[in-house]
Each structure stands twice: as structure tokens, then as C-alpha cells.
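pasting input
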Amino acid sequence: MRDNLLINLALVFIPFSLTSIGGGAAIIAGLQNETVNVHGWLTEAEFIHLFAVSRSAPGPGTMLATAIGWKVAGWAGALAASLAFFLPSSLLCYAVFRMTNTHREKEWHLIMREGLAPIGTGLIIAGVVSLFRVAEGGILALAIASLSCALFYWKPRFPVLIVLALGGIAAVIVSSWPKFLPAFDIG
Amino acid sequence: MSQSEAFRPLQRPSLPTLFMLCFKIGILSFGGGLSGWIYQEFVLRKRLLNEDDFASSMAIAQMLPGANVVNLVICIGEQLRGPLGSTTCFLGFLIGPFFAVIALYNVFDLLADVELLPVAFNGIAFAAIGLLLLTCIEGTRRAMRFPPSVAVIGVTAFLIGVLQWPLIPVVLAMAPFSIALAWKKR
């Protein structure tokens, strides 16, 4: 039973590993669907919580895989999900790097890069849409996300931890001010 | 190491040196900007890699699936010390964040009784979405040079984000189409 869970975790993460073009942000929409709707391992609130944890941790944003594995099946789950998520894409990258390094100036290489780039961006937008839907934060979510985006746009070197903390503080202030947003309700 | 002359590093670091360098970047890099860190350490400070090798590794790392920065350290590891170098960089880079994310989850869990905490977490997540928004804006701006790319962005985002179609089949269907568009452009 438990082995099945680990295998299922691996089976969910391996395909995402090989399709996460443009980095981890691209797979958030799909990952949310698999873990919440298809397998029922997490509730939507737990998913958004794990997302917040993984974004405040160091390392690539895709440490979300480790966090999900940990939540679903403890240390073994964390290890299974991390390996299933990071190993396949890494092996592919290693193989491709060795093979194509000599062709990097060639035209097909450039065309492939240009063709894949907009798909990566589209996937990130899809991830943002699905996060907004899951978070159910309404106008507050939009306002905090836009402000933090604007801040990073004009001050790219601004420490991320501070911006994230400010987002948390802003949410607390607004929610403890009932008249400001009467229908505001966070699950 | 059967590396060609062109990719011979300026210096050949030992495996423990590589491991510690990647470990340091992994554990300290809160909230992104990781490629910038790697550039600082490998190219500017330790002079293990020249600018061209870094840039070409970066292109491949971004093009392929997987976390860009993990792909990047794998390419760098291969150039510096071959397969063992790649393995060392991969492990060194991920081991810190692996324990950090679990530790952080438990810290958050310990504080779960605090009533306003879920509210604060949501706020943190909203702010983190801002980072993604910026990525969307920059990606779309780059695509503006070739309008069909913007359509590819829109269709991909709509099918997966709005209609919630499964991601993998959509990507597999869109990729040849988008690459064909890029090919026709030339």
C-alpha cells in the first residue's frame, strides 16, 4: 500500500519532470490538477500552502515537488518525489548537452529554442491563472501580486524574502480590517 | 575527461570544491535569481568558466525541461569535471534546499495554531505569484518580436490555465506546431 503510494508519487512526477519546459512554474497548473483533483492527496488549501512554503525556501521553485512528497508520504515520499522530479530532466539535459554542444551555433538549434520559448511562457501564465483560482483571494490576491511584480520589475535586486514577508503582513492587515473588505474570507 | 580544447576550463576545480560551491549557492539562494548567483561564483569570482561557456550552457538549460538552474549546474559540472562533476553539482546544489523546504514546512506547521497565520501564508503566496507575473511579462515581451509566438503563448495559457486541459498532451501537441512556426519565419 505504502509502496504503491511512493510508486504513484514517482509516476506523477516523472512526466512533469520531462515536460517542465521553462522551469518549475510551468507545471504548477498540471501538478495542482494531479495532486488535488486526480489523486486527492491534497486539498486546494494544502496545495497553496505548500506552494507558499516552497517559494519561501531557498533553491529552485520546484522544491514544491519535495514539499508535496513530504506532505503525502514523509521522508520516503520527499525522496521519491524529488528524485522522480529532478532526475529524469537532469539525465536528459546531460545527454542533450553532451550531444548538441558542438551544434550550438547551428540553425536547427536556434529554431528549436525559439519554438519552445513561447510554450514555456504560456505554461507560466497558465500556472498563474490556476494559482489565482486556487488561492481564492480575489482583489487582495491581485493587488499583492501586482505590487510585488511591480517592485521586482523596478528593483530587480530587492531581497525576495522581504517582499514575501510584506505580502504576508499586507494580507494580515487587510483581513483584520473588516470594513475595508467586508466579504474577504480566506480558507 | 575527453573535452575538446574549446571547453577546457581556465582551472580544474576538485570535486569537493565543486560540491561546496553548489551547496553554498543552493542553501543561500532564497527566492530566485539563482542563475545570477551561479554566474557570480563560477565566472566572476572563481573564474572556472568563461562567459561564452556560461551563456551556451544557459541556453540549453532553459530550452530543456527541468528546473533551469539544476540543468545549468549539470552543464557546468560536465564542462569542468565530466559525468562526476555533473553528479557532484546536482547533489551539492539540491541537498540544502531539500532539507530546508522540509524544515520550513515543519516550522510553518508548528505555528499553525496562530489564527492569522493562514492569512499571512496566503499573502506570502500572492507576493510569490508576483515573481511569476514578472516572468510572464518578460516572456511575452520577448515574443512580441514575432506575433505568432504571442498566439502560441495565448493558446497554451488558455487551454491549460482556463480550460484546465491536461498539460502534457497540450505541450506535446503545441511543440511541433510552434517549432514549425519558428522554422517558417527564417
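fyi Confidence is low (pLDDT under 50) at residues 1-9 of chain B.
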